[in-house]
Amino acid sequence: MADTLAGPVPQAPDPAPEFPMPRAARCPFDPPPALKELQREAPLTRVRLWDGSEPWLVTRYAEQRAVLGDARVSADTDRPGYPTKASPDAGEGKLSFIMMDDPEHARLRRMVTAPFAVKKVEALRPAVQRIVDGLIDDLLARSGPVDLVEAFALPIPSLVICELLGVPYDDHAFFQDSTKTMVRTTATPEERGAASREVAGYLAQLLGKRIAEPKDDLLSGIAGRVTAGEIDHRQATEMALLLLIAGHETTANMIALGTLALLEHPDQLALLRDTDDPKLVASAVEELLRYLHITHLGRRRAVTEDIEIGGQVIRAGEGVILANEIANRDPEVFPDPDRLDLTRDARRHVAFGFGVHQCLGQPLARMELQVVYGTLYRRIPTLRLACPLTDVRFKNDAFIYGVHELPVAW
Amino acid sequence: MKVELEADKCVASGQCVLAAMDVFDQDDDGIAILLEDTPAPELLDDVKEAVAVCPAAAIRLVDR
């Protein structure tokens, strides 16, 4: 019998790098330098997560789109190999269809797509313009410095999604606080679970009211599906929770982080300040979505059948993480990717993800950001950061990146 | 060139409407509709952009 010990002793492979990776201290707008290196070296690599698991990390644009567009890749967090972001939230249900696969995902998603159609969103533009102008009037009535997050960035998407859903804005302090806890990585599973249950309970009550007495809002639309027997109360509540959370935390962070990025790139800010061309404003929104990357913990999937991506076979039961922020800096797709250039054509970015799960609210987010970026710097041309950049606290501790506060003056 | 749309794949992202408003629209549920299956040559670049940004690979441009 051959002596299996006679051969060369196999070298222990290098340990997989930990994910997520730290950003460079002085580059708050750039992805972690290690991600850039990995992208240069290979399209796929193993990384190690908080729980010791080692899913694949995909860094290049083409391979990310291939994975996200592949039906053999699952968004179901209960699948073997799914790379979890943190320990499971105690007692928390699934966040509706974003954690499901087709056909159930498609069935549920299509129940709430109607109000996000491009032309329906466009019809809301005058109302959003009024909200933005009103908040700027309030800002200008003060002498500053003011926290732009609290006074401007958060209220806009909150007001809009509340109006769309039919959630009373007067309750915003409650669900904004709970949402903050839900997306804070340093919150304990118990804290996150409790916050999530609180908002879910609140929405379940509102849904009950709409079932009894429908109004002309999205909650009533969801309530109608319950009445029709298409979904149960729990599913309806999860759906409402998803829309409420996704509808304000993301856009708010893009408003504040985008403003900070522009203040740090005065030549680019000047382009927006000096234009009333809606095409340039739309282009600026796409470029800021590409350049910034608020979903900085990667989109995550479990592979259900062996697939080959970038010359590498990923086995059924393995996890895969798509770091969209580094795909948006892939030089194969975006020349000179680390330069913020509001005039470039950035429309092919994957800031909203890709595949069947691509953001449902993207037309609304785009419109809100167009109104904000197209108005704020024109109306307050002297807007400036009211503290050193090094004093700004970035949300490295949240599922969604941004700034905790943004002190500004004018 | 002819545009083909598989509406059952559509996920209502609205990307095709933003890329090529003269060629695509959305129905009441946000699902894409083809307004023009043989668009004028000057619209081809827009249609190609729509093909590229459609997250669900529901749009194709075919020789006919």
Summarize the structure.
The complex is a heterodimer of chains A (410) and B (64). Chain A has 410 residues and is α+β, with helices and mostly antiparallel strands.
Secondary-structure map:
The complex is a heterodimer of chains A (410) and B (64).
Chain A: H1 33-41, E1 44-46, E2 56-58, H2 61-68, E3 73-74, H3 104-109, H4 118-123, H5 125-140, E4 146-147, H6 148-153, H7 155-165, H8 172-182, H9 189-212, H10 218-227, H11 233-263, H12 266-273, H13 278-291, E5 299-303, E6 307-309, E7 312-314, E8 319-322, H14 324-327, H15 362-379, E9 384-385, E10 407-409
Chain B: E1 2-5, H1 15-19, E2 24-26, E3 32-34, H2 44-53, E4 59-62
Antiparallel strand pairs in B: 1-4, 2-3
Query: Roughly what is the average pLDDT of chain B, rounded to an integer?
Result: 95
Instruction: Characterize the biggest β-sheet of chain B.
Output: 2 strands, antiparallel
Strand runs of chain B, count:
4
As a percent range, the share of strand residues of chain A is 5-15%
Briefly note the structural class of the backbone of chain A. alpha+beta
Percent of residues in β-strands of chain B: 15-25%
Overall geometry of chain B: globular
Protein name (chain B): Ferredoxin
Keywords (chain B): 3Fe-4S, Electron transport, Iron, Iron-sulfur, Metal-binding, Transport
Function (chain B): Ferredoxins are iron-sulfur proteins that transfer electrons in a wide variety of metabolic reactions.
Pfam families (chain B): Fer4_15 (PF13459)
